[in-house]
């Protein structure tokens, strides 16, 4: 029994360690040589996704601006939450400091967050400095010694939350973590290595497809839906390690259709019987052509489904624009009255909290 448990622990350590390595060169975007992906049991698509319609808001009020932070939800996932904060024409450094404040456990702010959400930075943690290098697009966060103490399982989640929060800021692509001015090279309890420069290539909410060897895998980040304790819907990014293929975009879309592996905690963003008719990329635009025979004519498509699709495809390809064609229709409207007759951009704000 102990030997079996040791093998499981070692396998998990390999997975998360691999995701701390740069993975940007995992595969090309070549459309040829596609490989069948291992099947997962997708949960049935339900109407729950409709509850998220209208959860994205494009603009803040005149005296407010938006700030996206990554928090721990009640299912244990790291999830984005966009807050309305007082407008102050803040610099990235100031916004980063505000974000760190929201990510720190604070009873005074607990009632301003959805029930079940909390920060991953322990209460009382001191941040010495936050420094932005505009030229390199890097933010360096220097914590006071010692590094914040927490259970080993949350160390990796804190790292993900820090990197994904900081890279939401305009022009920021990389994050450095230091403690008392010294590079953080290893997480204290889990002993996972921390590389000098961290990017979103470390993944978030990492999971491994059954039967896939970590050393032969590649990461794809998918956006699924979840529900808060109050029944409100929100999106959760999940980085899934899948069999390496030559076509990351197609594999990513296949995995999005297959749905989440954790049934009950996350829900599918797309119907499981939807099919891919065409997927191509030209310059800065990804074209996704899908067929859903269950979609009734003259019925608006779920805005949540389309937001999850656009987020997933822009994450997979790096392209800023996505053109969606559904059942051959190149011009349609979603349930938020947003038109899709032209390529759409990636949503700037995810899961806006109505404060």
From TrEMBL:
It comes from the Bacteria. Residues 1-25 form the signal peptide. Residues 96-188, 249-335 form the GerMN domain. It holds the Pfam family Germane. Coiled coil: none annotated. Keywords: Signal. InterPro entries: GerMN. This is GerMN domain-containing protein.
């Amino acid at each position: 029994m102990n030997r079996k448990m040791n093998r499981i622990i070692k396998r998990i350590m390999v997975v998360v360690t691999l995701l701390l390595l740069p993975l940007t060169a995992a595969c090309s975007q070549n459309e040829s040589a596609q490989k069948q992906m291992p099947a997962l049991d997708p949960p049935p698509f339900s109407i729950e996704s409709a509850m998220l319609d209208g959860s994205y808001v494009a603009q803040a009020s005149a005296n407010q601006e938006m700030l996206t932070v990554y928090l721990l939800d009640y299912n244990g996932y790291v999830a984005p939450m966009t807050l309305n904060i007082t407008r102050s024409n803040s610099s990235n450094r100031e916004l980063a400091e505000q974000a760190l404040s929201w990510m720190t456990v604070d009873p005074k702010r607990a009632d301003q967050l959805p029930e079940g959400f909390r920060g991953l930075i322990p209460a009382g943690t001191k941040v010495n400095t936050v420094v932005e290098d505009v030229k390199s697009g890097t933010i360096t966060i220097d914590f006071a010694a010692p590094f914040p103490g927490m259970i080993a399982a949350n160390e990796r989640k804190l790292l993900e939350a820090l990197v994904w929060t900081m890279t939401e800021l305009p022009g920021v692509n990389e994050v450095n973590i230091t403690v008392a001015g010294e590079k953080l090279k290893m997480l204290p309890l889990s002993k996972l290595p921390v590389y000098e420069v961290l990017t979103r290539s470390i993944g978030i909410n990492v999971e491994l497809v059954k039967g896939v060897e970590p050393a032969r895998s590649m990461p794809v980040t998918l956006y699924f839906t979840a529900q808060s304790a109050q029944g409100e819907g929100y999106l959760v990014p999940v980085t899934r390690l899948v069999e390496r293929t030559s076509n990351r975009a197609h594999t990513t879309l296949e995995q999005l259709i297959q749905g989440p592996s954790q049934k009950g905690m996350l829900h599918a963003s797309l119907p499981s019987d939807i099919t891919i008719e065409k997927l191509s990329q030209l310059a800065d635009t990804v074209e996704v052509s899908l067929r859903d025979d269950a979609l009734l004519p003259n019925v608006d498509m779920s805005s949540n489904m389309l937001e999850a699709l656009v987020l997933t495809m822009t994450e997979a390809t790096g392209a800023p624009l996505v053109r969606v064609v559904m059942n051959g229709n190149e011009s349609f409207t979603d349930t938020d009255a947003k038109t899709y007759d032209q390529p759409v951009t990636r949503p700037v704000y995810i899961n806006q909290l109505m404060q």
